[in-house]
Fold:
Amino acid sequence: MEILVCIKRVPDTAENEIEVNRDGSDIERDDLVYSVNEWDNYAVEEAIQIRDKVGGSITVVSVGDEDAEEVLRREMAMGADKGILLSDNAFEGSDGEGVATILKAGIEKGNYDLILTGAQADDGAGQIGGMLAAMLDWPYASLVNIIDIVDDKTIKVGREIAGGNQEMNEMDLPCVLSIQTGINEPRYVGIRGIRKVASMEIPMLGVKDIELLSESVGKSGAKVKRLDYFVPELGEGAEILEGSTDEIIDKLTELLKAKGGIK
Amino acid sequence: MTQRIFAYIIHKKGVVDDTALEMVSAAQRLGIDAPITAVVAGSGDELGTVCNAMAASYAEVWKIDDDALAYINAEVLRELLVRILPTDGIVLIPHEHFGMDLAPGLSVKLGAAYLPDAVDFEGIEDGYLKAVREEYSGQVNTHVLCDISQGAVVTVRPGIFKADESQALQGQIVDKSSEALEEGRTDARRRYIEIVEAEVGDVDITKSEILVSVGRGIEDEDNMEIIFDLAEAMGGDVSCSRPVVDAKWLEKSRQVGTSGQTVKPKVYLALGISGAFQHLGGIKGSPFIVAVNKNSKAPIFQSADIGVVADILDFVPELTDRINEMKG
Amino acid sequence: MEPVLISPAKAIVFDMPAVIFSFLIPLTGVGIFTYIIALRLKPLVKAQPDPRMDDRIHRFFNMCKFAIGQYRQPRYLLAGIIHITLFAGFVILSLRSITLVLIGISDGYVLPGMSGAAGHIYHGLKEFAAMAVLAACIVAMFRRGILKPERYAVPPKYGKNHTWEAIFVLVLISGLVLCDMVFEGSHAAAHIRKGLKADMLIPGTGSWLSAILLTSASMNTLQHIHLGAYFFHELIFFFFLCFLPLGKHFHVITSLPNVFLMKMNKGTIKPVQWGIEDEELDQLESFGVKTFEDFTWKHMLDFYSCADCGRCSDNCPANAVGRPLSPRFISIKCRDYAFKAYPLHGLSTNSHNLIGSVLEEDEIWSCTTCGACEEECPLLIEYIDKIVDLRRGMVEDGIVPQSLQKPLRALEKRGNPYGIMEKKRIDWIKDLPEEINVKILKRKETADTLYFVDSISSYDDRIQEISRAAVKILHAAGIEFGMLGPNEMDSGHEVKRFGEEMLFQYLRDKNLNAIKNSRATRIITTDPHAYNALKNDYANLPPVEHISQTTLRAVTSGNIRLKPIEDPNKIYTYHDPCYLGRHNNIYDAPRELIDAIPGIKRIEMTQNCKDRSFCCGGGGLMLFYEPIEEKRMGQVRVEMAKTAGANIIITGCPFCMVNVEDAIKTSGLENEMGAIDLVELIERHME
Structure:
């Protein structure tokens, strides 16, 4: 099975507060470190497990600048066979639709049976997989946390829906799936693994290589534009509620309700 | 001519999802003065019930009735929606598992813009819809401008907009089934099989939005009941700190902390949890933490937003009663 | 004169001269033995290199001390006495056994030098040795068969218990001495019957007793008993010889070489592959131990040498809290595997992955590398290097627990396991008093003394208090020092011990460079893990010391004066951190320092102090990994302190502090027990 996994290089924000720069045009990036989007990492692991079971090969693809090569290489160290970097100045400022358009053009240069994306990335949008599927006119399933390969034409997927329940579906190949975390336990990639794939060629394709019109993507093609960043207001420190139990419960229920803590 | 606004209604077994009325509030904040149309798909009597209910809150209700929609498959529905929706409409869809399945592809098929997971709208600015989105798990917000000139599909985060129960409309129910099904259905390339219910106790707390988390302060296994009662009242899940797992009062999958799960609920209630560093490591991303502990010096109060100094064995049942009262 | 009884060398048995058997039995025995040993050596030939022939004088000394001198045996007193008795008896009786073999060939053979007085002395010695061995065997059998000490138990997941084998061997040994007694006794009895003087019969010995018992027997019977005892002895002797390399009694043969070849540099970790320089590591096909043949030959010899005494696991904190690790069974399972993969008949099987078949992932991750097992093993078997090698293999194959992947990635990206920004590494100095000026060392800003802080002491809120106390002590002691600040990286101590060698080297090289630029001539640490890393894992660094040593000097010289203990009612106990004590032998400095506080009451957790200290739960990455366990190590440790009568536990390691404080909390002992770091205690009592 030929599998393509779309991955994204994102700031690693787990332990550090994201700050907005002075004019609000971007987040403060000076002290950020980057890694592969967590969901994408699960997708690559899943692809590896599928390939190891039924054969075939895995390509990882990323839309981004030259730095994105780093995450492609990491996922190749993990076990992906090939990497493709879709990079061009014309891609800058693309919205979700733009990224999906670029990926679609790149995908049409290859021949894939299954395309995986992460369920979402740093922007929490969860849009690329669904848009890409629609552009390719392939079937799509989001939030997938089980994949069973039935044969070379069909697969069975479980989608994670509310309450930890699973919606089981049968799907025709080729298709696009967006992968939820927890579908597997991604393997570790160390420095040694990355060094082993250091010399592998990662082709970089631009607008011309994938036969796209520059206007259709990038800033000019974007229908959704980010205006600014700002920090949402948050309370500071623990406020100890005082008063009688009734009064405390009054205040607490009010707060819980306001924060969405009572469904 | 103003653009039409549509809201996709999620319902299950004849029961309308909370998001149905949240969409009304959300639509009002778009800054477009236009009546709102509810789009309801399904089959049979249940569908009728839902449409009737929606007619009170929406100016118009579009109904798509088809046996194939008894369990709604986004792949099937998308094709039908494309046939009936205008290409320049604003379509609001809840940003939950079904919406995420349906919406991105729908925007492509309609040729509309796609604005995912909006948490607020700030009206129209120079012909663009101005919306607020969260990035980096809510650490940073952004304003986005969305070009709605060729229509837009907008997913709206559930639970953010207050359900608007004030409407008293007598909306017209329009049966769009024949229009939607005029050209028949293409064979679905994704076929629904079944729902596999989560095993009892097999809750993925990392996905929970409300966590009622219990620690050593519960003292005894018999007391666990009060925690489950509160979680049920709040509509959340029960999680715990390590001693509770060690005592085998809850399964390992419910443990929060560096050795357990890292959770990011909207609301985290730490009950009788002192706040060992391992535990705190698992809740760092929680935006709203309430701690209840009888020890006023418990470290958990350092990390919590709201603190209550009380014995959980007394406090929790009272809180549960109050919430149940509120919900009627 | 006609001999009273026909000797084995001259007897006729089954119409054949018995001397034929006297030749055949040893020949067959030695032949089979040689064959088995050759097979046992087969995997060692395929194994990885391991240079162990350096510093032979020191090695010889160790062999005399630990193997011949049985130095560690009395750590378990009864078992130790039994073993020393058996061992000493074995050494004495081996000469007799050799003599007996030769007697069967050449009548009345006497070993060179054993005629005359020496022979008489030896005879007496041997008679008493035989009695002692017999007594030891009986006590041992009673102990193994009836008392059944807990540490010999075999949990069901590790197979059947080993009592049978132990008792069987004790029976063989008893058989050997009994045969000799009967052989000698029957000879003496025949003399007595003939009215002759029985040579060398010492009252009270087994030979004497058997002579008395046999005097009523007929001469014919005595003749049969005499020959029977002889050949029975022969058969047991050579059977035993061949039985040794089939199980735990292989140690009888391997212990001397195993101890001679022991690891000499505590606290270090073996390189990925001996003989491969760091720069050449990229050329290695594979890292660490994946198959049995990836072990070094010495590590295989370790497996052969395990005597199944259970002392390692009895002291293993992981085992004590019910983690899926028992060092004893690492050795036994691997030995069983070796015996199965290299069978006595049939072909060797192809090497396959140990993890998942012989060993389990969780088992290998459960080790805190505290070193208690190695400290206890009478045969100096190594465990930490093997565990690390197995982890290296897993790391390369990507088999790393999810909870460890995050801190490892953060170490790679940020140089600390928490993933916090580099620039925040020195945020903790902001809360220091103004008069203390802390230098951040760079190429142009240098100091003689470098305080290497390490990650937990830089980033953890609670541990930062220890770092600040350390800075105040250094300041008070008048030591001019600096720190690396944002240029400091995690020491990589646990990174190395968790098998991520390349990441360790990356961190090490960054630190080496920063330290070199600081031009420091001495390094001080508060974290024993950092201490061990800089001292034993890094190379070419200026001298490294732990703050307890620095502070003790300042107190002794009078640079720091201590005031009387704040609360004289509190009873303190010192918890030895593994990487200060066991791995680096620093036991006294912290104790002297504590005792320098006037009026302090300090007691020892006598059963579990110094080299028997019980690990708090482990440091570094161990904080991010908690395997299945019944209770926390820290809780066990706090319980030990409580039982000893202490109410304040003094730690000397940031990780001990984290684990002990957490254990006090989780054990619900907040009102009874407390913990304080050595540095904090001293800082609080400075005048």
